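ok trying again, last paste got cut off:
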Amino acid sequence: MTILALDSSGLVASAAILTDFQLRAEYSVNYKKTHSQTLLPMIQEIMEMTETDMEDVDAIALASGPGSFTGLRIGSATAKGLGLATGKPLIPVPTLEGLAYQYYGTDWQVCPVMDARRSQVYTGLYEFAEGFQVQMEQTVISVEELLNHVNETGKKTLFLGDGTLRYKKEMEELVGVPYQLAPPHRNQQSAAAVAVRAAELWAAGVRVTADTFVPEYLRLSQAERERKEKLEKEGEQRSDYAETV
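nice, full thing came through this time. structure:
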């Protein structure tokens, strides 16, 4: 089985090809350019280098969210476009699971942390000691909430993701269990890890058609939040006016 995997959920754009649980190629870039500029050329490059045609691909895997709203939309549009054009199914991989899979087999608790801004993070808790186990489903919470929860588990924890750079000081001050921060080469999104998780999900029967796939944002975008706040404010003003007349 051959899987083409994509991850554009964060600052890194990444594409990979996995065939029969062997990684044939991975291409990742984390440098200034937008994913709309990099993702398709990266896919083309690895397919040409591995002499892979889309007809050889059985499924398209992608980091399905949460993450950057723009990045998720670009990844979704790319995967859906390829899927609709070729009839290939999509395998949605939760973003935090894809991150955590880089440490498959560790006996440490794995905690991916993505900066969600507004003093919040996208995160989850995972273990691999007895196969893959989700200890806390991916969610968006404050940094303090996450670190307090990690302390409550009492387990040594490995943190990875761009949030480890943004909130390193808070971790130093608040984490009360033994912990490590992932090294640079295994600290950010990897389409290869998404591909491996996707292969397991495929074996479990997880797949969707390209036309039905929707990213999992977990919260409203900034524009949607501002619109909601504006409508709520206008509603309060109308209510105050009605009470005075």
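cool. Strands lie at 2-7, 13-19, 22-29, 59-63, 90-93, 109-117, 120-127, 133-142, 157-160, 179-181. The chain is about 40% helix and 25% strand.
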